[in-house]
Specification:
Aspartate Aminotransferase, domain 2; Aspartate Aminotransferase, domain 1; alpha/beta; 39% helix; 15 strands; 16% strand; globular
Length: 401
């Protein structure tokens, strides 16, 4: 099966990795970067770096314009309708912590927060710690055999004490799109706030936050072919108004004296200190690049490559897939083989995959596993990458068995 990638040449690191005999299949952790991003970063640093929102000089004006242009591009990418609903953070984890602290006043002892059993630590630990601070109950929505949040169980658990629902759009372990529409409807019926962790989902297809109907949506730039150290928090205007400020200093201040201060509303009110300026500008360049691609061709490419990966793994004896993966990634275990041993032998053959608990330790424990191997795909991967992976996998399993 031949699945070429017409976008491979747009990513210089792929050619560099090939020269190092490396095949990169750990894209769910972070992606390689397009030339358009590298050019934007070089242009910003080479033509005069400056801080944003606080200087009248020309470099500051240029930086501020480029920074705010990126905010508009993110708003358009998510169909947010208004870039004033886009807050820049230092990552999805940072955005979720912002919410957990900024919404703390929203809860009273005995209130309930609902997450699911498949959550990444970033969408578990901030809520877990909030529950401990405020005497709340953290409810965990169970999964069905396909790795989807169990809707019937959710209908029983989401109730009048539910104040917030926080779930992933796409599992970083199970590769399954979650049933957000009924889940969000149930939560809204109880007057609960809704948070979507889009760190994995935002990479695959275009997602409309107005159609989703969530209160908050977060993602990380580095998984979306953008720079690391940048995250995005979308919040509906009314939901953002309910947030309390949680970090202080810099341009988020409206007025201050020694004993009192007032603070700006979102978005600037939640961007304390110097933001990741170059990264935000770089994310804007990445979104320009992605917006110029044929989305239908891209979806077909990802689907064909994922089908080839599934077919190859299912054809090999003793391999068990986790859940029913639908897009871009597959996690698996091998009977009688430790995932760390297999990852070590794959690494020795130049295959970059992820092994371990994938920052979803409770999920792995519930599956009775110490960890798993995860192969995750990007738009620059092709069938030759998978053929090299399969060859290395066969050699590794022959040694380990």
């Amino acid at each position: 099966m031949l699945v070429p990638s017409p976008w491979r040449a747009d990513f210089p690191a792929i050619a560099a990795l090939q020269r190092q005999d490396q095949t990169y299949l750990d894209n769910a952790a972070t992606t390689q970067k397009p030339q358009a991003l590298l050019d934007a970063l070089a242009h910003y640093y080479a033509n005069g770096a400056a801080n944003v929102h606080r200087a009248q000089h020309l470099p500051g004006a240029h930086a501020t314009q480029a920074f705010e242009d990126s905010r508009s591009k993110v708003g358009q990418w998510l169909n947010a309708g208004d870039s004033g609903q886009i807050v820049f953070t230092h990552g999805a984890t940072s955005a979720l912590n912002l919410l957990a602290y900024g919404l703390e006043h929203h809860f009273s002892p005995g209130d309930e927060i609902l997450i699911s059993a498949l959550e990444h630590h970033a969408n578990l630990l901030p809520w877990q710690q909030l529950a401990q601070r405020r005497g709340l109950k953290l409810q965990v929505l169970p999964l069905d055999p396909d790795g989807l949040i169990d809707i019937n169980a959710a209908s029983r658990l989401i109730g009048p004490r539910t104040r917030l629902l926080a779930v992933s759009q796409l599992s970083n372990v199970l590769g399954a799109w979650q049933p957000l529409t009924p889940l969000l409807a149930m939560a809204k019926a109880q007057g609960a706030l809704t948070v979507i962790d889009g760190a994995q989902g935002v990479v695959h297809g275009r997602h409309d936050v107005q159609a989703l109907g969530c209160d908050f949506y977060v993602f990380s730039s580095h998984k979306l072919y953008g720079p690391d150290g940048v995250g995005v928090l979308f919040g509906r205007h009314q939901a953002l108004k309910d947030l309390r400020h949680w970090q202080f200093g810099g341009e988020m201040v409206q007025d201050a004296d020694y004993q009192h201060a007032s603070f700006r509303p979102a978005p600037l009110g939640f961007e304390a200190g110097t933001p990741p300026i170059a990264g935000v500008i770089g994310l804007g360049a990445t979104l320009d690049y992605l917006a110029g691609l044929d989305q239908h061709a891209l979806s077909e490419h990802e689907a064909a490559l994922h089908a080839y990966l599934l077919q190859g793994l299912q054809a090999r004896n003793g391999i068990r897939l986790l859940g029913s993966p639908q897009v871009a990634l597959v996690s698996f275990v091998v009977d009688g083989v430790h995932n760390a041993d297999l990852a070590h032998l794959l690494t020795e053959q130049g295959i970059a995959v992820r092994a371990g608990h994938h920052c979803a330790m409770p999920l792995m424990k519930s599956l009775g596993l110490a960890g798993a191997i995860r192969v995750s795909l990007a738009l620059y991967n092709d069938s030759e990458d998978l053929e090299r992976f399969f060859e290395a996998l066969d050699q590794a399993l022959e040694l380990l068995r």
